């Protein structure tokens, strides 16, 4: 079989629609109807990607996403949110937790398949190119991409994967100004679907975690952001 997908979806007809179309694309598809069952399945199978509904009985999809991204054993598994909740706040919340993409219901199976392929391509690229980028030391910050580590005054700063990528992307290009979409292209690749608000949310969280050094990430009005030169 091809790559393995886990679908966490409580609506049988939607789960079957996804299973049928993804199996036609060559994927090995497993389905769980609750968040807890989905977590156990992910832990056991370690799939190539997870398609996750947000509106689940019991533990909701956002909590499931957070748990998967907190676990070192599952944090690198791509998550695509599949949800009827298309409001910007829900999309931003999912992306902030580390979700890789989202599709809103009703969706085209062809679009869903394309999104899955795109996420897996990005994952393959990252796995095949474990970056040998040099660590960055600037303004009292030490950023090590290989260790996914940020230290500030000898204390470790805990960042999400996306926050880390944004910080490293900007810190390796001090003084350069990037639009929100240029930042997304730089850390996710061209064509990644995201709202401008989602980038702002990540920047706010990043500045908060960096405390006084959060001001190193400067807002350039009408353009975007830069790391202080």
In short:
This protein has eight helices and eleven strands.
Question: For this structure, what is the CATH homologous superfamily of the largest domain?
Answer: Response regulator
Label the overall shape.
Answer: elongated
Q: How many strands, which pairing sense, and closed or not: the largest β-sheet?
A: 5 strands, parallel
User: Which bin fits the share of residues in helices?
Assistant: 40-55%
**CATH-defined architecture of the largest domain:** 3-Layer(aba) Sandwich
Radius of gyration of CA atoms, rounded to a whole number: 18 Å
Number of helices: 8
CATH topology of the largest domain: Rossmann fold
Strand content: 15-25%
First-to-last CA distance: 50 Å
Can you describe this structure?
The chain is elongated, with a radius of gyration of 18 Å. It is built from eight helices and eleven strands. The strands form three sheets. The chain has a five-stranded parallel β-sheet with strand order 2-1-3-4-5, sandwiched between helices. The protein has a four-stranded antiparallel β-sheet with strand order 6-7-8-9, covered by helices on one side. Helices cover 43% and strands 19% of the residues. The protein is α/β, with parallel strands linked by helices and 229 residues long. The longest helix has 20 residues, at 109-128. It has two domains: 4-128, 3-Layer(aba) Sandwich (Rossmann fold), CATH 3.40.50.2300; 136-227, Arc Repressor Mutant, subunit A (Orthogonal Bundle).
Topology, pairings included?
Blueprint: E1 4-8, H1 12-24, E2 28-32, H2 35-45, E3 49-52, H3 61-70, E4 79-83, H4 88-97, E5 101-104, H5 109-128, E6 136-138, E7 141-144, E8 149-152, E9 155-156, H6 161-171, H7 180-188, H8 196-210, E10 217-220, E11 224-227
